[in-house]
Structures
1.
Amino acid sequence: MFKKLLVANRGTIAIRIIRACRELGISTVAIYSTADKEALHVRMADESVCIGPPAAEDSYLNIPSILSAGLTYGADAVHPGYGFLSENGDFAEACQRSGLQFVGPRARHIRLMGDKPRARRIMKRAGVPVLPGSEGKGVTEVRDALADGERLGFPVLIKAAAGGGGKGMRIAHDAKELERLFPIARGESEAAFSSRTMYLEKYLERARHVEFQILADSHRSVVHLGERDCSIQRRHQKVIEESPCPVLTARMREKMGKAAVRAAEVVGYSNVGTVEFLLGPDNEFYFIEMNTRIQVEHGVTEMVTSTDLVKESIRMAMGEALGFKQRNVEFRGASIEFRVYAEDPVRNIPSPGLVSNHHPPGGLGVRVETALYDGYRVPVHYDPLVAKLIVHAETRELALARARAALREYVIDGIKTNIPLHLKILHDPDFIRGDFSTSFLTRYQPETHANAERTAADSRAT
Ligand code: MV4
């Protein structure tokens, strides 16, 4: 049983972890950079430690500082949240070596799934469908990429072997474009991940991004908690996520859920994880990657399954067995998450600053996860995600109505946010019908050349 847990994160997820600990009777140690002295997660934790200057590399990514904070304050465990060090195998290993239980999978599984070509290989061998793509360890040279492109047929997607979440991704429609974009994508991968290894995948058009939540205890029991449709993304930043996926039949859910569970089982995975699939227009589906952490959008799964995923992750890290089997998982209603970013929607740039007036919505089926408060200054140094609005209702249609009402009620003065964009999407007939794919948001914010070229510089980690 853990007595004290170090929360190795900031913002909404740090608060989410502190709340889970409080319910479990575990005391919490927050860490913060000098830019986060006034942050809500610091105020909410039982104890707090300053671990460095604003730059994430010197604070939230500083492994020695975080470990020494944990040891100095007598923590038994570390929860990494998402982003930052959450998918860093070295961090997970360093925690374990220091006697701090890492709340997440073993370092081995973080590293395995972080190597995307290797994950593809393992899944293919296990009978989990993958898209046609580069074989083996991936490619580093343009000529090898061109050979793969010719073999696969265009369009292809260039992806970073050490990537994930679409960072450094590029679509090539022909050989000439591949020749031009491959070195750019490889340069981005080198800058972001210190890796020149890339892989190609056949580009699946008009697909939906459907991911399955899995839970795996340390006694080899694995269940899935259904799916989330995360097709609504802008520059590979998710904007809206929902569960269930509006087009998934019970039969497809069972089929894809089994594949997700199998993906976890074949590698002996433990703790929470997400298996990402692309779902094509004719209901074929393909594994694209696995995320070895709790995700931003975990809340919609919590609402439809009445499960506290953060509490479950901590319990599983304590060695507890899952208290239920797959047949006991019940799905109820529809839940949708709207990510609120502190950003200038016109110029597509972060909009940090002083929050002069904050009034979050409330009421039945309305959940707000936020680190904002009146008088809080959103720092410039980190991810601009400042709140998640999660609605839940008996049907998707009722959830949409609840979301419209909640977003109209939401007041965040002093900074610019994407709330007006959410309200526009909520009146889009295709969105209302559930008829959308990964290309949906281009109609609101066309992927200009300048934007596409900027995606690389955009190194946010969620
Ligand atoms: C793809 C794809 C189509 N074909 N891979 C984006 C995030 C990362 N985890 C995987 N992603 C995708 N991979 C192949 N082979 C489509 C996406 C994708 C996407 C692409 C462009 C614009 C928005 C998107 C939203 C979700 C997924």
2.
Amino acid sequence: MKLSLFHTPEEVPDQGAPDCAIAIDVLRATSTMAAALAAGAEAIQVFSDIDSLLAVSEAWPSDQRLRAGERGGGKVEGCDLGNSPLDHSAERSGGKRLFMSTTNGTRCLKRIEHAPTVITAALTTRQAVVNFLLNQNPDTVWLVGSGWEGTYSLEDTVCAGAVIHGVIAATGQTFKELVGNDAAIAAVSLYLQWQDQLIDLMHYASHGQRLLRLDNEADLKYCAQIDVLDVVPRQRELGVLGL
Ligand code: 3SL
């Protein structure tokens, strides 16, 4: 297995494709996806634009759908939910399809959707993702941060580092054997530096600060937790994720 990290969807090479691509948006899209599926959502259908989300979801029975739209950190008008993992419970999300569009996370998924295996990762699901990689043993893995509108984000990078570190710890392999680019090695150092202070890192991160200004401290706390959900959201058909 060779793991490479791309900090943003824009960094993903146009040529070639990995056996497994992993979208990461710790704050908050991939944390929310995992929370929704863990709460029993039937599936998550992702869209890069809100108009398509509204049009496609209209054909779905209204009592079996939830529309989640986020732009700039806030809920989009016309949607039931924004992008908080804390929105999802068995009562609200159980059995429903989540139609979802966010600023960066769903765009990241769209960028990698043609890889043979597409999954998402968050800190909350780190060990589940490590176990998935160990079981599937794909030859090439691209971890892709969602970033913020084309720029690097600390929280996605620390999550990528946590996953890569987990694979190294389980296999005993060296960087030379396991790592495909420099960014992947740097991400492990970031994780090792911050692993016991992930909530502090969220507060320093620029997107963490944006969410705090929008009164979302509870979401930061939730998303900074490591290994609390045993689920791996996986693309089951183009643009549709399930367990
Ligand atoms: O950019 C995204 O996809 C979102 O996760 C951003 S936010 O955390 O909902 O503001």
